[in-house]
Amino acid sequence: MSKKLTSRAENYSKWYNELVVEADLAENSAVRGCMVIKPYGFAIWEKMQAELDRMFKETGHQNAYFPLFVPKSLFEAEEKNAEGFAKECAVVTHYRLQNDPDNPGKLRVDPNAKLEEELVVRPTSEAIIWNTYKGWIQSYRDLPLLINQWANVVRWEMRTRLFLRTAEFLWQEGHTAHATKAEAITEAELMNNIYATFAENFMAIPVIQGLKTESERFAGADETYCIEALMQDGKALQAGTSHFLGQNFAKAFDVKFTSKEGKQDYVWATSWGVSTRLMGALIMTHSDDHGLVLPPNLAPNQVVIVPIYKNDEQLDAITEVVNGIMKDLRAKNISVKYDNRDTYRPGAKFAQHELQGVPLRIAIGSRDLENGTVELARRDTLTKEVVALDGLIDKVEGLMTEIQDTLFNKAKNYRDNHITEVDTFEEFKKVLEEKGGFISAHWDGTAETEEKIKEITKATIRCMPLEGKIEKGICVLTGRESARRVLFAKAY
Amino acid sequence: MSKKLTSRAENYSKWYNELVVEADLAENSAVRGCMVIKPYGFAIWEKMQAELDRMFKETGHQNAYFPLFVPKSLFEAEEKNAEGFAKECAVVTHYRLQNDPDNPGKLRVDPNAKLEEELVVRPTSEAIIWNTYKGWIQSYRDLPLLINQWANVVRWEMRTRLFLRTAEFLWQEGHTAHATKAEAITEAELMNNIYATFAENFMAIPVIQGLKTESERFAGADETYCIEALMQDGKALQAGTSHFLGQNFAKAFDVKFTSKEGKQDYVWATSWGVSTRLMGALIMTHSDDHGLVLPPNLAPNQVVIVPIYKNDEQLDAITEVVNGIMKDLRAKNISVKYDNRDTYRPGAKFAQHELQGVPLRIAIGSRDLENGTVELARRDTLTKEVVALDGLIDKVEGLMTEIQDTLFNKAKNYRDNHITEVDTFEEFKKVLEEKGGFISAHWDGTAETEEKIKEITKATIRCMPLEGKIEKGICVLTGRESARRVLFAKAY
């Protein structure tokens, strides 16, 4: 069924690309840089969506839907935002194709169907949404406005990789409006917190919450909060961002409100998003040379049961027992799939479920029936044990928590062991080269130094962590004063 | 809060447009023909999505995601499909904007960033999906392939109306592949059945299942099944379609499979979809001059509770009782919202919930607390009654079913009373003019006659019903032989 994957040690990047395709998560499409998310990969994304959506709604947010297209005149209204996205956007210029007179059977753009104003396919929706909010916000009674959108966006990236960086990707984008600056900042922090909670409790990925430097901020934001994760190859991955947008968009789109006291003021804004990029983080944090490893909280099938039989009579007897197990597991909200396909042998099924990261496999053969046992195989540890059918449900329930915790702790140990404090640039380069991970170093706070370090080492400032001690020091590159350590890393 | 709506009798079309905006369902955007779906409207759509998604998954379908863009060369591969959609598609020709040297602060398309091949924003995804299926299908073991996608699509319609016909709309599109023609036809019928069940059980809209005539078929289909509903103004609305695509796309994209017997053959296909257009059907079927009327099975809030109080002490006492009611209603899976906003008076809240179609309103005042009563107001019948707090939960639970049934039966009575058999063209025109609705008439089976009737009366053949007697007769227009009656109507 599946060919052996390239090992991580041999070629991490190749391992990732092969795994994504072989585990049936996604594949490249006929459209440059755009991916097809296959059913198994999409089922994981759906589980992520469901949890995030629940968390958004529990904190008072509502979903809505805004247009895919942004007229050029709106796109360019907030200058920094426009500048940030203009270089990589898909532009609709025509609204019709016609038969190509020079190529029978082929079509061409109809030159008479040129749009008066070009439409940008949304790379992010602040412009179209703030233009809409102008009509929705008049008074303090209309605030706060807490809205989220699940949507596709397009950024014309030149170098793409499945899930990590694609021309079209799926995401959610929250866009909120507030009466005060303080409330908007609290919102931006709250949503970054929700992302961190989601990453840790569901994805089993430890993250560092922090602030971006000015040069790494979202185009149009006054402050960008982020969650940063560390992959197994020592590279960091920005897993989510939450922006305090100040009054930038309110001013660009003239969105004012009347306060209780009858005073007019511009509205304060946030936006925040996570995308299918999270799939890349999930894969690269836990998976191994055998394939995908999924935390139970996001696995489409937490348990798979494979019958081992020689004839229909044996299969029938096994199936009867399996039906009882499935009923009991489902009663405990554990998702289970019975893989009784007769077109594949058990060995091929085992290989597929291992490759696809099903947390727990249960195999039941005729001898098991006689002995009142089943065989359990954990995907995370690749260990097997024979256990009694009696007590199986509690055992499996316990394992779901144990596997989830094991994955998180393993990732956290790795991450914690890969945060290195350095005080010289030599050390900086040596650690980056030999060990990778986050480097905690002093920086003089200038964009020039940040850029120079990036040029020399390819490491960027991932964030200024929100937690931990703030100590003064001297910049590793320039020797100038530094107000605090920041985290550097090479990043996806 | 809300201005009075134009009445249906005065101007049905205006009534609809006003209602959609006033009830906070959707509004027009800055992009020609594209709508913004507002949070309340989107919450209804989310309920529809959840139910449909459950029904699709229960019948073995999986979700996936395919690219937004279709390269022109793929778009034109299936000739009829291309011809059907070429005239109204958005075309991406460039991938970058740049500063406009002639207009400081403005952007323009970068002439150096022209795509080698134009990309069509998907009007439907058969082309991109069948090009993908080519890589997924080799053997009978890969079949059936049962995939659905929730997505946005763009059709450059010239005359648009909120929900009913918009340039961008949201929908689901199922795309399945099968080993045999019979299996594909069964699938197309199954999905049309699911649409009918959903429409009747959740939307409370009676529908007629039927087949489209050749001229009304989906471009590229061999057969199109549909569900047709009737609106209150006597016009029909196509609420969903399910297509048997034959081997047309398999041939256009060269998708073959090897059978168990080792024989190669092209794959058989279906596609099927419903869209945000359903929102239009829902609104126009049940709503009245006071605003939206929602069936309980799709209402974001099935019950709203409004406290009537003069001071905080009264409010606290009411709130305590309300908390108990909410807990008990939620335990019965009845969604309830406590509208305790202090920025609006009870009258304004009543008006808003009436306008927004909340099925049941409960008002509780201080005197109610003394008497152990509450006031119930049904949105469908606009009737009020005072009932005992004791037994309230069961009463509300019963009303949810009763309101759902009442709406369906009312719509069904109207629909059934508006199917008229006619045998002459004079009668045809008279009924169409004076009564509207479906006209069951004989037709000679030719596209010419169909077109001519459309030209004269604006009525089209909505479908050839799957159920009911098949009787021969003579065509109302030409007097030629007719194999069966078909249903004509003016339609949205």
Give an overview in words.
- Two copies of one chain form a homodimer.
- Chain A is α+β, with helices and mostly antiparallel strands.
- Chain A folds into three domains: 12-286, BirA Bifunctional Protein, domain 2, CATH 3.30.930.10; 301-399, Anticodon-binding domain (Rossmann fold); 419-489, Translation Initiation Factor IF3 (2-Layer Sandwich).
- The first copy, chain A, is 35% helix and 28% strand.
- Chain A contains 14 helices and 27 strands.
- In chain A, the strands form seven sheets. In chain A, strands 3-9-10-16-13-12-11-24-27-23-22 form an eleven-stranded mixed β-sheet. A five-stranded mixed β-sheet of chain A has the order 18-17-19-20-21, sandwiched between helices.
- In chain A, strand 17 (303-308), helix 9 and strand 18 form a beta-alpha-beta unit.
- In chain A, helix 2 packs across helix 6 (181-201).
- The longest helix of chain A is centred in the last third of the chain and has 25 residues, at 392-416.
- The two termini of chain A are 31 Å apart.
- Chains A and B meet through strand 2, helix 2, strand 3, strand 4 and helix 3 of A and strand 2, helix 2, strand 3, strand 4 and helix 3 of B.
- Strand 5 (91-94) of chain A pairs antiparallel with strand 5 (91-94) of chain B, so a sheet runs across the interface.
- Chains A, B: It catalyses: tRNA(Pro) + L-proline + ATP = L-prolyl-tRNA(Pro) + AMP + diphosphate.
- Chains A, B: It is found in: Cytoplasm.
- Chains A, B: Residues 27-295 form the Aminoacyl-transfer RNA synthetases class-II family profile domain.
- Chains A, B: Its main location: cytoplasm.
- Chains A, B: Its EC number is 6.1.1.15.
